[in-house]
Amino acid sequence: MLFIFLLFGCTLAYYSPSKICLGGLFEDTEIEKEKVFRYSVQRLNEHNLAAGLPMNVYTSAVKTVPRYDSFKVSKAVCELLSEGVAGVFGPQSPDTTDHVQSVCDTKEIPHVEQRWDIRQRRGSCLINLYPHPSSIAKALADLVTAFKWGSFTVIFDQSEGLVKLKDLLSYYDHRGFPVTVRQLDEGNNYRETLRRIKNVNEKNIVLDCAADKLPDVLLQAMQVGLLGSDYNYIITDMEFEWSIQVIR
């Protein structure tokens, strides 16, 4: 996030008034992300001072928004724009971010996303911090090749996640490079699917699921004997943050 702030800062420093406000939309559960946002604004000011850039002062304006209420989110972004923000960060929820992007596109204000978005498109004011889906797919395919996996199993929870795995799935070959695809069970119990994978003696696994599910999936994988020194995992989620104590 700091990189994006520096990018904004270096661009706006020469063309904007001396005081620049950056807006942020965060859900009430995103306390840490809000702290990072405010800290990044502070670091941007410190960086510009140390670099001898024109002394623009950057401030932050933050609104707490509900996850699924598009009306309140739209109202919040309009309030930020009325305060003269130079750009809007967030929110994370795919249920409301389209409304924010629509308003920002209309006003030609940069909108920064921090999440996986399969619908990235050119011609909008959107800046997405995640790599393009095709880039992620290529990177995953390169990893499998580098590890010299002769076979592997893909575990996923949502069908849209298969887009980022499309290059991996293209490796499927009846002549000797088998790829198995399994979807996680609905609910919170994934043991049946994990046991099936263990029973066929698969050692190489690509796991694609939401970050909040990962601790439970890996804990249950350990419980059924699918997690240990004999097993190799590639975890695709780029927001994978949790303590190793969860599976100890």
UniProtKB/TrEMBL annotation:
Pfam family, one: ANF_receptor
Entry keyword Cytoplasm: no
UniProt cross-references to InterPro entries, sorted A to Z: ANF_lig-bd_rcpt, Peripla_BP_I
Compartments where located: Membrane
GO-annotated cellular components: membrane
Residues of the Receptor ligand binding region domain: 35-237
Keyword entries, A-Z: Membrane, Transmembrane, Transmembrane helix
Coiled-coil annotated spans: none
Record protein name field: Receptor ligand binding region domain-containing protein
Origin species: Homalodisca liturata
